[in-house]
Amino acid sequence: MSGERQEKIRLLLQEHGHLTVSELAQRFDVSEMTVRRDLKALAALGLVQREHGRALYPQTASDARFFIRLGEAEREKTAIGRLAAELVAEGETIILDAGTTTLAVAQSINKPCVVITNSLPIASVLANPGEETTVLVTGGEVRGTTHALVGPMARAGFAGFNADKVFLAATGVSIERGLSANNMLESEVKQAMLVAAREVILVAHSEKFNQVYYHTFAQWDKIHTVITDSGLPEETRRNLKI
Q1: Angle at 182 between CA 58 and CA 193, to 5 degrees
Q2: Apex CA 65: angle with CA 203 and CA 102, to 5°?
Q3: Is residue 67 within 8 Å of residue 86, measured between CB atoms?
Q4: Residue 134 has what pLDDT?
Q5: Which residues contact 67 (CB under 8 A, 6 or more apart)?
Q6: What is the pLDDT of residues 140-153, one digit of tens each?
Q7: What pLDDT does 50 receive?
Q8: Nearest partner of 63 among 136, 148, 5, judged by Cα
């Protein structure tokens, strides 16, 4: 899987300092194009540096916490991402929230569509030459721990759009308290996404359920669909009525 392979690439570069694209392709028995996509995603997170034909491990890997989160429950997040991507119809306009599970959605999109996002890693994954996906990125201040664009410019970036769907992430999901985030700036941007989309789809790993954080940005009456994994407790599943 791409997240696991990218972590192995990062560790190899940390060990060797630099490796060529060809060497990495041979090590993992994948195409050089696949390696270039992996390196592009890693570089977007500040975890490697790219040069012509090779990659280098930086002196300081910034915001490694995001990549650690990316590797957590990777199998489940990949499955969630694939299922969510199946809901995207050709030609639709969708919003992808910032987060590691929504990044898995982006990695699984295989239909021509318009994507609006406040996530730099998602923009990097989708902005491949020759792809038929149109990527629009909001302005805003980059939040280092998540590589999300936040603040007034990010909120304003969603104004005026009439998206078909928004794929929303949450730090905490509670039957009683709704969807919550641990950062007010990100919470405000999520609320702007809700206004800009006709259908709201929550993509969340089961470990996010029964958790409540700093600020509730949406109640259940705003959510149309929930996509999670099989680890959701049965009691929570029974209580989850949208």
Answers
A1: 90
A2: 20
A3: no
A4: 94
A5: 6, 7, 10, 42, 45, 47
A6: 999 877 789 999 99
A7: 87
A8: 148
Say what the pLDDT of residue 239 is.
86
**Structure tokens belonging to residue 102:** 């929504």
Q: Is the pLDDT of residue 67 over 80?
A: no
What is the model's pTM?
0.75
d(CA 132, CA 233): 39
pLDDT at residue number 116: 98
Does the CA dihedral 196-198-201-202 come out positive or negative? positive
CA distance 35 to 26: 10
Which residue do the tokens 């928004």 mark?
Answer: 166
- Tell me how far apart the terminal alpha carbons of the chain are, to the nearest angstrom: 32
Residue position matching structure tokens 């919550």: 180
Closest C-alpha among 108, 67, 114, 69 to residue 90: 114
Structure tokens at 54: 């090779």
Residue 126: count other Cβ atoms within 10 Å of its Cβ: 20
CA distance 155 to 218: 16
